């Protein structure tokens, strides 16, 4: 616990927050965390778009097809508690489209 207190103290002294009131520190830290959240959020979206574009260039498929395949795989793997127990693919999934075209 002493390490956490020391880290907070060093942060306050380094950024000059030690001379502010409690509400000014709270406001500054809130704005800093909000800015950090925006940077991380937008970086994740950029990374997804970049890798989907790269994936489509290397495999010669459209980004929409890759998104459908990725969504199907995440659904089948049971991410976020969405386990597919029916064995029947969803109507808009990549697998369902292939089965309708092949028959």
Would you summarize the structure shown here?
This protein is an all-alpha fold. The protein has helices spanning 2-15, 22-59, 63-77, 94-102.
What report would you give on this structure?
The chain contains four helices and no strands. The chain is 74% helix and 0% strand. The chain has two domains: 20-60; 62-103, no CATH class. By secondary structure, it is mainly alpha-helical. The mean pLDDT is 75. It is a multi-pass membrane protein.
Radius of gyration: 24 Å
Largest sheet: none
How many helices? The count is 4
Q: Name the shape in a single word.
A: elongated
Structural class assignment: mainly alpha
Distance between the ends: 65 Å
H/E series: HHHH
Q: How many domains, as an integer?
A: 2
Low-confidence stretches: none
Query: Portion of residues in helices?
Result: over 70%
What fraction strand?
under 5%
Number of strands: 0
Please tell me the overall pLDDT.
Answer: 75
Main location: endoplasmic reticulum
Keywords: Endoplasmic reticulum, Membrane, Transmembrane, Transmembrane helix
Transmembrane segments: 26-48
Membrane topology: Multi-pass membrane protein
Q: What labels would you give this structure?
A:
4 helices, 103 residues, 2 domains, mainly alpha
């Amino acid at each position: 616990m002493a390490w956490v207190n020391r880290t907070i103290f060093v942060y306050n002294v380094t950024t000059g927050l030690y001379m502010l009131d409690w509400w000014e520190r709270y406001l500054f830290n809130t704005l800093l965390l909000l800015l950090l959240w925006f940077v991380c959020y937008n970086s994740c979206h950029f990374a997804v778009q970049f890798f989907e574009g790269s994936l489509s260039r290397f495999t010669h498929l459209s980004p929409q097809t890759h998104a459908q395949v990725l969504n199907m795989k995440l659904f089948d793997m049971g991410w976020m508690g969405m386990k597919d127990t029916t064995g029947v693919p969803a109507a808009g999934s990549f697998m369902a489209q292939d089965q309708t075209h092949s028959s």
